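okkk here we go again. third time trying to get the fe (ii) ion bound version out, last two times i messed up the smiles copy paste (missing a bracket lol). double checked this time i swear
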Amino acid sequence: MAFYTKLGQLPPKRHIQFRRPDGALYSEEVFGTEGFVGPTSTLYHIHPPTQVTGWKPIYHSKPEYVEREVMRMRHIRSSPMPPKGDPITGRVVLFGNEDVEMSVCVPSEPMNYWFKSGTGDECIFVHHGSGTVHTTFGTLKFRAKDYIIIPKGIIYQMIFDPTAQGEPNPRFLLIESVNGSHILPPPRYLSKQTSQFLEHAPYCERDLRIPQLPLTFDKQGQYEVRIKTRGMVHSYMYTYHPLDVVGWDGCYYPYIFNIDDFSPIVGKHHLPPPTHQTFEARNFVICSFCPRLLDFHPLAIVLPYNHSNLDSDEVLYYVEGNYKARRGIESASLTLHPQGIPHGPHPGTVEASIGATKSDELAVMCDTFRPLFPTKAALELDDQSYPLSWENSPDSKLDGKDSTGKKSGGSNVNTWS
Ligand SMILES: [Fe+2]
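finally!!
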């Protein structure tokens, strides 16, 4: 993150003696990025963080992509995915490339170990469920619609609250940087002088939930930390609780941003997706399409124009809203609109949307600058008819009216593009 903060106990200066109650020294760790010139935090451990054993590779984590040469629209229905695994092993990669991997996870088991990614930053969008993430930097309570940003190298355990009867299974979308870059707010939202969020940004520091106490778990025993790196998950053993930090300060830590705290920017005419941008990393961006008032020119067309995103693949994850504007889409659907072929509103939806004043859509979008590839798991959930869904159909001949001849859009439409 951009701004400096701290938690727990700290000595008054860096790199000086800082002693435990028993007189021994705490172990200082500089948690640095980009060769000590990127965001950094300094942590104080009860035990030397170097005292680990194991390094046993336990399973491959590198996704296998299929149909790498095929360019077509895709619609993946992830709602039928059965619950499986824990919040790490239950992740199913659906799309990815050299820069980013996108997974859906519907966990059915708790984690009985801790985890860190040595590959890159993780952006976990919680669709359903609530719970707690215990991290090296403190505790984060999460709820539905939270983006949980866990930067590379941070040890954590994600615990979902029990699900009440009738509530959906916990479910999250994971967008993971695999090119070594960090997932951060767009630089244009931040002051160059102070890194403060600027007035035009759709969110600011007050919207970010940073780690809280409890921070320190002073326990001895056998603790497993699984580390993902080099396409493999390794098991390391600690003889002390891995979350043994008594204090830290700096600009590198996990945090949460709830998508309902994104303040959409609206315009007289249709505004493009960068208006909805929330985070970015090298070669991909993450955007939030949130409920909002629509374009207010008296003749405005509130749905997006057809567009050729010549340099980016677009993946949308549909969270909630009125899905009628896009045929066949349901909650937890993912669509991929690849570079190379234009896309836009479905037949009939533009006329139907005229006069609409608001949208109740909620969707997360990830745009990548290099082509995305599906996995075998994605193809198993693939709606093969989706690429043909822009064909003229009896619906479109209604010219935006429903079967009774009335306009079907009403005052509330979705504007997914
Ligand atoms: Fe689009």
